[in-house]
Write a structure and sequence with these properties.
alpha+beta; single chain; 7 strands; three-stranded mixed sheet; 191 residues
């Protein structure tokens, strides 16, 4: 029964001497993504259809990320600290932001002055914070030049400093108090 259930994507649980289907395993979003992928494979030759399926695939991925972020926000995990190469965390975060924005590497200028130093941090949380900062800078209203990211060490005891800058118009002073509110944005809804 378990093998048959697994082959069909079902979750099953014992009920006395029988097995019963309790919930369909694939989440609705996974089903949608699978269906879009199947349609892309079957119908992708037509340019218009291929473009529409590509949009559907991107948007279902976006929905998944939003749901995941909302879930993480609703029940955040405690930080997990360990030693990490700071440059590696920064480079991976910048690559992720550029990939998500579909921009070339030249859109972000990196200046890393860390000499291979390591940092005790939660690499996942630092990565996500940097992706968010770089994304915000890349989407800055009025931005013309590349985003600049400068990472270095200062002070005693030594601490890491990561500075992300863009040449956009900036945020109106009356909005500064809102920047740490969940879901705050100055972009149009859905953008």
């Amino acid at each position: 029964a378990q093998a048959l259930a697994a082959a069909r994507g079902w979750q099953v649980a014992p009920d006395g001497d029988k097995w019963r289907r309790v919930v369909a395993s694939p989440a609705p979003l996974a089903i949608l993504e699978c269906a879009v992928g199947t349609l892309q494979a079957q119908l992708g030759a037509d340019a218009d259809t291929g473009e529409l399926l590509s949009i559907a695939s991107e948007e279902s991925g976006r929905i998944g990320r939003i749901v995941s972020e909302l879930s993480d926000f609703a029940s955040p995990r405690p930080p997990s600290f360990s030693e990490h190469a700071l440059d590696e965390v920064i480079i991976n975060a910048v690559r992720a932001a550029l990939l998500g924005a579909r921009l070339p590497e030249e859109a972000v200028q990196l200046r890393l002055e860390n000499e291979g130093r390591t940092l005790v941090c939660d690499a996942g949380l630092l990565h996500q914070s940097l992706v968010n900062l770089v994304n915000n800078a890349l989407q800055a209203r009025g931005r013309k030049g590349p985003v600049q990211l400068h990472a270095h060490w200062e002070g005693a005891p030594s601490r890491a400093v990561i500075d992300v800058r863009d040449d956009g118009v900036g945020l109106a002073p009356e909005l500064h108090g809102q920047i740490f509110e969940p879901f705050f944005t100055t972009r149009a809804t859905g953008a």
